[in-house]
Specification:
Helix content is 10%, strand content 37%. Strands 2, 3, 5, 6, 8 and 9 form a six-stranded mixed sheet that branches. A hairpin with a 5-residue loop joins strand 5 and strand 6.
């Protein structure tokens, strides 16, 4: 049996559940409008989306296989200016160990970073990982 991998960016339609609050399209997040090296941006306007350039297939747990669990795990992260993921956390999970497997996979991803005014910047995004057990 194999499981499929679908990774898609959910950039605009997913409501944020973090403590950070957007200040506007393409804006920095948080309460301070300072735009230094630690600023995190949302994709919009002059802020481009990070591009996934390397991914690993998430593992399916035996417990989830036995329980016939399938579906999407939504993972929120920050893509750093160097293209590495950070602050990886599950915002909607499936349980049975699949949430942890999703985090482990995403932590190994590599991105071409998001850009603002021609410079790489930290960008938040949410991706979905599809855990779907299929028969051969």
């Amino acid at each position: 049996m194999k499981h499929g991998l679908i990774v898609s960016c959910i950039l605009a339609s997913f409501a944020m559940t973090s403590q950070m609050v957007a200040q506007g399209a393409g804006s920095a997040l948080g309460q301070n409008p300072y735009t230094g090296p630690n600023t995190v941006y949302r994709v919009a306007g002059d802020v481009s989306a990070p591009l996934l350039i390397h991914s690993v297939e998430q593992e399916y747990t035996e417990a989830a296989r036995n329980a016939k669990i399938s579906g999407l795990v939504l993972v929120h992260l920050i893509v750093e200016a160097n293209g590495n993921p950070s602050h990886v956390r599950v915002v909607r999970g499936l349980g049975m160990g699949l949430d942890e497997k999703a985090i482990q996979a995403v932590q190994q991803y590599k991105f071409k970073p998001g850009m603002k005014n021609g410079k790489p910047v930290r960008v938040e995004l949410t991706i979905s990982l599809n855990f779907n057990e299929t028969a051969n």
